[in-house]
Amino acid sequence: MRLDTIDILDFKNIAAAKLDFSPGVNCLLGRNGMGKSNLLEAVHFLSMARPIRPIPESALIRHGSDLLMVKGIYIMDSGSTESVACSIARAKGKTLRRNDKEYPRISEHIGRFPIVSVAPADSEIVSGSGEVRRRLMDVVISQADKSYLARLIKYNKALESRNKMLRAGIRDTLLYESVENSMTEAAEQIHAARMKWVEDIKPDFVRYYSRISDDAETASLSYRSILNDKKFPDVLNELRTKDMVLGFTSSGIHRDDLSTSLGDYSMRRLGSQGQVKTFTIALKFAIFDYLRKNSGATPILLLDDIFDKLDSSRVARIIAEVSGGENFGQIFITDTNREHIDETMQTIRSESKLFEVTDGSFAKISSLS
Fold first, then answer.
1. Which pairing describes strands 115-118 and 300-304: parallel, antiparallel, or unpaired?
2. Please, what sign has the CA dihedral across residues 124, 125, 126, 127?
3. For residue 37, which of 48, 61, 80, 248 sits 20 to 30 Å off, Cα-Cα?
4. Long-range CB contacts (< 8 A, 24+ apart) of 336-339?
């Protein structure tokens, strides 16, 4: 799958832009703050109908404007074309159309146009809270499994109901059990899906990390959940009295996490900047393979500022991974250094386009092949 064209209006600092892309590699060159990352975020927004990071969607609208619009044409692996248009109006909210028909539910869009982004903020996957890692799991699995998002919504609604009961001081056991039964069914399915996802991506993650680091160290990840060792109804029963005092549900799949390790030690506590970046890139490449195998389409790969905080040998091995074989399809790369871009293109040697980015405007400056 690839994005053939994009039409952008008032998205962050991009007032207006209409671009057609290479099916291979698309390079964006420019100084910091010019709009390179904003274009990648617009591509992500079109595929996922949500920002890359958890920010208010209204923050995507260009300052001084009341509405943003992003439209694009995708060419699917089968050769068919799909059009998508997504807009946000400050007064009316979000509208999403596929092939000129509005979605009954925006959640139906998730997974149709899979995408994987690698960005500087990904260090939060290692250094951030468990919420960051849970969100990563949920976003990825939802792109491959339509039922997963519905189960997650069901669980979160039941969790909200239970928390309201706890805050209200309700003590009726039967009322709690009616809500907890719904929570348990969804929780068990979500736990099983997350467990399978981690087991599925782990071999690819270990392989990518080993190759990028040239076997300099060994990294690993594992899934932490209270449901690994206990049945969820037992957990809720044991903690109900405590939860009544706290006023919220203190344990459950909404507290699950991923453990990130470097050898026998915590990546979060001991990993260098280069090791953390290697870890997150290896994880994102493993996610790409997972989506390619399970979503029914080859994802788009966004590589934002990947040269930062990595030595030249690790960068070379990353580019070698991207250029090797046919696993990776359409790729977008940003950088501030023309020399980096040229070296990358000489290595990849696939059909490509290079754009110079200045104050939210884009100019094709070279055709590389």
1. parallel
2. positive
3. 80
4. 336/29, 336/30, 336/31, 336/32, 336/305, 337/307, 338/29
